[in-house]
Design goal:
Helix content: 25-40%
Number of strands: 10
Structural class: alpha/beta
Oligomer: single chain
């Protein structure tokens, strides 16, 4: 959960000593597999891009993982999205996984490891992901979706408002916490739209509250099978609906 994650991050991060050693970045001009691109505020994002077997131009989806997770959380679901004809871009969010470099004006870089205090930058990560996708000739710029789990769910919800190219979004186990991060309260003319909200029964009220702030097309699906975020998508019905909402919107 977002609130629990924030508390954990705030407690754990100040004790960190030296930043971790980083592997070399993938080539910036790679067109599939591990790729890298930069956000407007200097984060060097590392992502995995996987195209489907069908002929381009492809519809595409950006997948935002959970707090304290990495892009590898989507490995199990990616084949389902590819089978539906969607190209998949799964980034490590800022301060997570391999996306730990913030590039300075002099070309050097600093380490960005403060996970809890960089959550409000996740929508900027989506903006950069969509820009990378739409710069490609093999991506249909009019058929872009975003899916996210937990903190990534709130990010996908916000992206449906602030990124014009995003036509559909799925928010799995999103959090409704007015006054907290990733609620869109400081965004002018904030109006999410085109979102499927998914949750188990324990978190249903959270998704229903976000649903109430969302414009059509919209849907909320509550499942009897338990699970938060990625864990919910291990079940057949939620993963089927996740893929269908993104594919049908294309």
């Amino acid at each position: 959960m977002l609130s629990a994650g924030l508390a954990l991050g705030a407690a754990a991060l100040p004790g960190c000593a030296d930043p971790p050693a980083l592997p070399p970045l993938p080539f910036a001009d790679a067109d599939r597999g591990n790729v890298t691109y930069r956000t407007t505020d200097g984060i060097q994002v590392v992502a995995t891009f996987t195209p489907p077997d069908s002929a381009p131009p492809w519809p595409a989806v950006v997948l935002m993982h959970q707090y304290q997770g990495t892009r590898a959380q989507w490995d199990d679901l990616t084949p389902d999205l590819l089978a539906a004809g969607l190209a998949v871009l799964a980034p490590d969010a800022r301060a997570h996984g391999e996306s730990l470099r913030r590039v300075r004006a002099d070309g050097g870089y600093d380490f960005e490891t403060d996970r809890a205090n960089t959550l409000d930058g996740w929508p900027t990560d989506v903006v950069a992901a969509v820009a990378w996708l739409t710069a490609r000739a093999d991506i249909d710029p009019d058929r872009i979706g975003v899916g996210g789990a937990s903190v990534g769910a709130n990010t996908a919800w916000i992206a449906s408002s602030v990124v014009p190219a995003v036509g559909r979004a799925v928010a799995v186990s999103g959090r409704f916490e007015p006054g907290r991060l990733l609620m869109g309260e400081d965004i002018p003319n904030f109006q999410p739209r085109g979102v499927l909200f998914q949750s188990d029964r324990e978190e249903a009220l959270q998704s229903q509250a976000l649903f109430s702030r969302t414009a059509e097309p919209r849907k909320v699906s509550v499942y009897d099978t338990p699970g938060h975020g990625i864990a919910l998508l291990k079940h057949t019905a939620p993963r089927r609906d996740f893929v269908a909402w993104l594919a049908e919107g294309q």
